[in-house]
Amino acid sequence: MKILIADDEADIRNLIKINLEENGYTVLSAQNGKEALDLLLSEDIHLAILDVMMPIMDGFNLLRKIREYNTIPVIMLTARTDDMDKVLGLGLGADDYLSKPFSVSELIARVGAQLRRSNEYLTPREKSVTTVTYGNLSMDREKCCAFKDGKPIELGAKEYKLLLYFVENPERVFTKRQLYHAVWEEDFYYDDNTIMVHISRIRSRIEDDPQKPKYLKTIRGIGYKLHYLGEKP
Asked: Can you give 183-201 as a three-state secondary structure string?
């Protein structure tokens, strides 16, 4: 398991790193939110430990970025005692919270608990097959990440779910209503414009020229389908 530590205090980073490695984890570290985000986009991270107060990009803004495309467990660290920090962090999608100074043994225990919990949410099939590929696109179901030609694609939560639905069902034509019900899971409501906006955003991320799409084709009068027109790897 690979864990990321993001904290601007080198002593804390090193202390946590040493103890995690002694427990068998692989550890990457960053001294600010920007470095941490770069690692998250380029490495296969299973859990992140984020300090709230960091330069360049603080822990809260980093957490917002992570939750746009990734569901990995996140543990927040803070030296502040204000309960509002905890409320904000949990509201943004943090899974756990520790106040400094903290017990390293407690942190290690919480890391283990979060990793076990996240693994339990996966079905047996998802545990064995977490990546689905079509053309030059690949989707990591476990981490909720999308890639084109091996490079990360920035997608919002609904955009990710919509693209994953297409990749899992290539060559099939879907109406806008079918897509809305599949991704938004609302049986009694339907928004035509919402689908068109999300399709446009996805095209801006995966197409070389969104005006001449090679992936997401519009089937006039019906809806859309994923049909790759380039050479498949």
From this structure: HHCCCCCCCHHHHHHHHHH
Mean pLDDT of 174-200: 80
Where does 2-121 sit in CATH, by number? 3.40.50.2300
- CATH topology for 129-226 is Arc Repressor Mutant, subunit A (1.10.10)
Tell me where in the chain the CATH 1.10.10.10 domain(s) lie.
129-226
Q: Which of 74-83, 90-99, 156-165 has the lowest mean pLDDT?
A: 74-83
Q: How many CA atoms lie within 13 A of 111 on its CB side?
A: 27
* pLDDT tens string 118-140: 765 544 444 445 788 888 899 88
Given a contact cutoff of 8 angstroms between Cβ atoms, the answer to whether 139 and 131 are in contact is yes
